[in-house]
Design brief:
heterotetramer, A: 1 helix, globular, D: Peroxisomal Thiolase, Chain A, domain 1, Peroxisomal Thiolase, Chain A, domain 1, 2 domains
Chain lengths: 175, 383, 165, 386
């Protein structure tokens, strides 16, 4: 260090924000929180079903007011395994953890979310997955705990039944 | 009317612990104006700066960058808060509009002063659905890389080879910091960030600034006898929700380059363009962007790059500079692509000059998660 | 409109740590303040104004500033009160997200060397009714062991008697 | 200029203190839709987008990425420009340049702010250099209280002038359905009951923090005949910046405003601004600034503005209407504020301003934005092509 010279100064930005989610997302999260349902919006013009739901169809620039309930099952469009931790506050899990984009059955778009109960080495694009909901839900996207691989033979389960709660510690149902 | 690039300058890219962001911009501006002999402030009617409040840690980051570029009671100033290629694009538009004859374009980012880059990027995802999942741009890129791999049966090793190739070129480029080769093993075994992206396959954060002077045709010819013309440009937004996109298809890049080709009158880019300076922030992006600009078939970018696919294009046409992986700051990135393309067309790309006197070049910049926004410029040698 | 109780918001804190470079100009100003407790400045070689704080280039005449110590000199730290205001509203500190205690008096000073400076006007129990433009002021610098190389190494500016300095 | 450009559509949201029913994207969508409706265009007919706001005010990083899907920018060219307080007007200028360049025919500029989502004062404090006096700055309130004191001292304006300006703006805002603050102020005694922020600046003298968005559509001469609305022609625009203000103190400086206006007027043959210009929508964050800045722009002599104000000269139905929309003091979604000035000016020139339509047949309109370290953007609009 040179005397009489300050080379660097440590500082930070620390500002809290409160972003409103809007009517559409609020309705989606309330349905998810209170009834455990996954609701999507549908464009009357192009008939695309948007999950996560939005109020405006980005392609047609039309307002969407049709709601469609979707099953908890879907297909993995892509995935990654995150190996670094940058913030306990911003990252929902400790690394390593898997992330993916899931297209729920009946939707035209994918939802980006965590993948759980899965061997990282067995992740494949196209694999069938289902949503696992948290028991205590707060009204945000992490009310879905994660998506996990659908076990063979469980495909026939009807939509709302497959919304099984998150397994508790010691829960042996899933082996 | 044509828009000419008459002079360019860059600071060294690296860790500049001893300099403030505006001091970096000043050094680039000073050098650039010296090159073309324009006076400060009075030599140009408009300034386009490019920086970010988040990365400078300061609302109105252009207060400082504008000041050292000569904005005090002089030319107008506007700040582009996205990749630097867009600043060049806006500079060209200002001249085409007739509102300015000469425009100074600057870009600066001091990435190494930010200790939490991923936190900033996390705020780049929409509040309701994507932010809480903890995404940052590396994770979004990794999702794109896997989608690309799985669609065309590519492997991580393929992408690692891109990093090796780029490093081989980067070490010849005196404007970049990298001086040593990387082996495939080194790349593959470097720290995995998010599968399949390792730390050596992602752009190294660094500090730096660049500046360039754009001028209308008449002024450009006065200021230099070797102008480079901006013949065309285009830009395009893709969807924000990652799941709305087919990540293996750079739709927005296809659209941006289509606009640029149309404006430049280019019908067959692979035959008409000799240099492609693309913004690959991660190794997998180089082949993917090559497909996006329409010079090779979908899924064949790696083959063309490796020289295995029959193509009119030499693999050396793509990022002869060594690309961004060798360390070019964000925001500066796209403008740096323009500068490297400019140097190639002028025959001044010391160390990495492509032989044969290239006539036309493409420069590309991208912004947002997994290439949500793309900007493409076509440059032509004007002498 | 939906009942507001049914509308959701998401709270997030943007906390980004920075390692700001102070550069050879401001860094020198801060470093000398820490070292000597004095305000070292430099005159613009072009328009001759004092650059406060020192910076790489004069924003008005575009002359490049010589690096320390050529042309640099310390200010006396004395001057006259130009303007002040009692800040009476709560303000969030963007470095901590906390609300700073109010009120305090914020002063602008014309230093004797012909340059403006701005700082707290103290001490805390200063009687605002005694203030008027043109009063003599002087910087109160923290003792060396408390100085860290920030402008707050000056505790505040205090009023001094005319001719006291 | 390469091509003539005209504003052929404007749209804005109803500005409020909070909009919990919409997220940022949805707020912008409202303005984009209103604008397209006004122009009777579909989104397909818009060739490019110019987007902007204050970067740190909602905390969002590269906000345009999220916004794009909500304003119809998906699959279209676009750029994000952010210049602080002047952002809105800069958006308009960049849109003019996009069209004038001949590259894009029809361009939408859209600015917004959703100030309840962050802390505006903390956001504004970060304008200051983190290593210099960020810990000390008093933000806009300190600045404009000094400005008010300075104006009073220099011109002899009495202390009630701020409230008198506010009464005019309140009257204007009442007539503008989009305005945010719609105070009923019966008389000057009532106006002067408002509490001080820093004397002589009262709460009612300062701009609020609003949520809202504004959009305009700009098109080229060739396309104008096909448009539904009467075009408002863009005559000229100018940007003037000042050096970074390391220390805000001493005399208030308005040289940026003066230089911007004089450049604009000189280039366009305006020698008697108050006679030749029919309406001014100026970006003045406080009532006192409005008075001083009218003088700085050259609309009246120094010290004359408050006297004209006392005579009621600046009301919407009088000789020289200033801020018939209610101005920034009534409505301030920062990233949109400058654009609202341009949009309101265009509405006046078109004769579509409704209850706050100015009385005479307007010819020229003057819109400004102010921000940064003392920056001005000024735009000159014309009802006639020539």
């Amino acid at each position: 260090m040179i005397e009489g010279l300050v080379e660097t100064v440590q500082g930070r930005l620390y500002v809290p924000y409160r972003n409103w989610l809007g009517k559409t997302a609020s309705l989606f999260f309330r349905e998810l929180r209170d009834r455990g349902r996954l609701m999507a919006t549908r464009c009357r013009k192009c008939e695309k079903v948007y999950m996560p739901p939005r109020s405006i169809c980005p392609e047609c620039f039309m307002e969407m007011d049709q709601w469609v309930e979707l099953p908890a099952t879907g297909t993995l469009l892509t995935y990654t395994v995150v190996h670094y931790s940058y913030s306990d506050y911003h990252q929902p899990r400790k690394a390593p953890y898997a992330l993916g984009i899931v297209r729920l059955d009946g939707a035209d778009t994918g939802l980006c979310h965590l993948l759980g109960e899965v061997d990282f080495g067995k992740l494949r694009v196209g694999m069938r997955v289902e949503a696992v909901l948290k028991e205590e839900r707060k009204g945000n996207i992490l009310d879905i705990a994660y998506f996990r691989p659908l076990r063979e033979g469980s495909e026939s389960t009807n939509s709302s039944d497959s919304l099984s709660p998150e397994p508790r510690a010691g829960d042996s149902r899933r082996g | 009317m044509r828009v000419g690039i008459v002079a360019v300058a860059q600071t060294a890219f690296g860790v500049h612990r001893g300099l403030r962001p505006q001091e970096l911009t000043y050094l680039a501006v000073k050098r650039c104006l010296e090159i073309c002999g324009l006076p400060f402030r009075d030599g140009y009617e408009d300034i386009v700066t490019c920086s970010s409040d988040h990365w400078d840690g300061k609302t109105l980051s252009d207060v400082e960058h504008g000041e050292v570029a000569g904005a005090h009671l002089g030319p107008g100033e506007v700040k582009v808060s996205m990749d630097g290629a867009n600043a060049v694009l806006l500079g060209a538009i200002k001249i085409l509009s007739g509102h300015a004859e000469c425009v100074l374009v600057t870009a600066c980012c001091k990435e190494t002063q930010v200790l939490d880059p991923s936190v900033i990027e996390n705020f780049g995802f929409d509040a309701p659905y994507q932010q809480l999942v903890g995404l940052d741009f590396t994770q979004a890129a990794a999702l794109q890389a896997v989608a690309y791999m799985s669609r065309y049966g590519l492997s991580h090793k393929d992408f690692a080879q891109v990093a090796v190739m780029e490093r081989r070129r980067a070490k010849e480029n005196p404007r970049l910091l990298a001086r040593e080769d990387l082996s495939l093993e080194q790349v593959m075994e470097s720290r995995m960030l998010a599968y399949p992206i390792t730390v050596l396959e992602s752009r190294a954060p660094c500090d730096g600034a660049c500046a360039m002077v754009l001028a209308c045709e008449e002024r450009a010819k006065e200021l230099t006898d070797r102008p480079v013309w901006i013949k065309g440009f285009g830009s395009c937004y893709d969807h924000h929700n990652l799941g709305d996109r087919d990540l293996s298809q750079p739709f927005a890049l296809k659209e941006a380059s289509r606009q640029a080709y149309e404006m430049a009158g280019i019908k067959d880019p692979a035959r008409e363009i000799q240099i492609f300076e693309l913004s690959e922030h991660y190794s997998y992006q180089l082949p993917l962007w090559m497909e996006g600009i329409g010079v090779c078939r979908e899924g064949r970018g790696l083959e063309v790059l490796g020289g295995w696919e029959q193509s009119v294009l030499d693999p050396l046409a793509f990022n002869p500079s060594g690309g961004l992986l060798g360390g070019v700051p964000r925001y500066v990135a796209g403008a740096n692509r323009v500068i490297e393309a400019f140097l190639q067309l002028r025959g001044e790309a010391n160390g990495v000059q492509v032989p044969g006197g290239p006539q036309v070049a493409l420069a590309h910049g991208t912004h947002g998660p997994a290439g949500q926004h793309h900007c493409v410029l076509i440059l032509e040698r004007g002498f | 409109m939906m009942d507001e109780a049914e509308l959701l918001a998401q709270e997030r804190i943007l906390e980004v740590r920075f390692h700001w470079s102070a550069g050879p100009y401001l860094g020198r100003f801060l470093g000398m303040l820490k070292e000597e407790g004095r305000l070292w400045v430099v005159r613009c070689p072009g328009c001759k104004r004092i650059l406060m704080p020192p910076r790489i280039v004069c924003g008005i005449c575009y002359s490049e500033t010589p690096p320390f110590p050529k042309g640099w000199f310390p200010l006396s730290g004395r001057g006259r009160l130009l303007d002040w205001e009692r800040v009476m509203y709560p303000q969030m500190d963007p470095e901590t997200g906390t609300i700073r205690p109010e009120p305090y008096i914020h002063g602008t000073f014309a230093l004797d060397e012909g340059v403006l400076f701005t700082h707290y006007l103290g001490p805390e129990d200063l009687d605002e009714s005694t203030l008027r433009e043109g009063l003599r002021v002087e910087a109160v610098v923290k003792p060396k062991e408390e100085r860290v190389g920030k402008p707050t190494d000056i505790r505040y500016f205090k009023l001094v008697e005319e001719g006291d300095d | 200029m390469a091509r003539r450009t005209a504003i052929v559509g404007v749209g804005q949201t109803y500005h409020k203190a909070r909009r919990p029913d919409v997220n940022i994207g949805e707020l912008c969508a409202e303005a984009a839709k209103a604008c397209l409706e006004d122009a009777d265009l579909t989104i397909r007919e818009v060739d490019a987008f110019v987007l902007g706001n204050m970067e740190l005010f909602e905390g969002r990083y590269c906000q345009d990425m999220w916004q794009a899907d909500f304003v119809g920018a998906f699959g279209k060219p676009g750029i994000r420009v952010t210049t602080g307080g002047t952002t809105g007007a800069t958006l308009a200028c960049v849109a003019f340049e996009y069209v004038a360049s001949g590259v894009y025919d029809t361009v939408m500029a859209l600015g917004f702010e959703k100030q309840s989502e962050g802390d505006t004062r903390a956001g504004l404090k970060t304008v200051s250099d983190p290593l210099w006096i960020r810990w000390l700055t008093t933000g806009a309130i300190g600045y404009f209280s000094r400005q008010a004191r300075y104006y009073m001292r220099e011109t002899g304006a009495p202390e009630h002038m701020g409230s008198l300006v506010r009464m005019r703006l309140a009257e204007h805002a009442k007539r503008n359905p989009h305005a945010h603050l719609r105070l009923e102020i019966k008389n000057i005694q009532e106006a002067m009951k408002a509490p001080y922020l820093i004397p002589p600046l009262r709460q009612t003298d300062m701009c609020p923090t609003s949520e809202g968005a504004c959009a305009i559509v700009v098109t080229c001469e060739e396309r104008v005949p096909k448009m539904a609305r009467r075009p408002v022609w863009v005559k000229d625009w100018v940007t003037v910046h000042k050096e970074a203000m390391y220390i805000r103190g001493g005399k208030h400086s308005v040289e940026d405003l003066t230089m911007a206006a004089s450049r604009l007027f000189r280039r366009n043959g305006i020698t008697k601004p108050r006679e030749q210009i029919s309406v001014a929508e100026i970006y003045a964050p406080s009532t006192w600034a409005e008075l001083e800045w009218l003088e700085a722009y050259g609309f009246c002599e120094k010290g004359q503005a408050w006297r004209l104000e006392e005579e009621g000269h600046f009301y919407w139905n009088r000789e020289f209407p200033v801020n018939p929309s209610g101005g920034v003091v009534c409505t301030n979604p920062i990233g949109a504020t400058g654009l609202i000035r341009v949009a309101e000016c265009a509405l006046q020139l078109r004769g579509d301003a409704g209850e706050h339509q100015i009385w005479r047949e307007p010819t020229l309109g003057f819109a400004t934005a102010w921000g940064g370290s003392g920056w001005t953007v000024a735009v000159l609009l014309s009802a006639q092509k020539e």
